[in-house]
Amino acid sequence: MKMRNLLFAVAVMLLTQSCATMFSGTRYTAHISATKPGSEIYVNGKLEGTDDASVRLHRKIEPKIEVKNSGTTTEFVLYRTIKWGSQVANLLNWIYIIPTGTIIDAATGAIWQPEHKKIEEVTKIDEKNFNVRIDNGRD
Question: Where would you tag: which of 9, 85, 111, 120 has the fewest CB atoms within 10 A of its CB?
Answer without folding.
Answer: 120
